[in-house]
Design a protein that fits this description.
The protein is an all-alpha fold and 132 residues long. The chain is 55% helix and 0% strand. Among the domains are: 45 residues, Arc Repressor Mutant, CATH 1.10.1220; 42 residues. It has 3 helices and no strands. InterPro entries: BfmA-like_N.
Length: 132
Amino acid sequence: MDKGYEKEGFVTFKIKISVAIRFRRFCKKMSESQSMALLLMIAFFEENGISPHEAIGPKMQTLESLIKKRINGVIAIMKDIEKNQTKPTVAMMQSLFEQAEPSKKNLILEKELPEEKSKVRFVERLENDDEL
């Protein structure tokens, strides 16, 4: 049963057999009862403000062109902001930092330690050195 419509009675419509067969196939594909499928179709047309006689193609194309115009407008605004606000501000900040640059101090380097002479810690003993 259709939820919310259990207590309502049925009414018949007179439609052609070929149309009824197509509609029943459509309802099976949608997994809906015939009443609910028809209700969904009516709701779709009313919500989108379109008529079954209208082609939906031109409306989509006009929406697409409108969106492209808006995007181009946003891009133009962003370029204008970059040109008139961001770049001059960056240039001013750079000029301020160049003037206020602190004097360079020598870096503290690691002290160089004098190289120690290599001490020999181990010496190879020869066979004749046993007497030492």
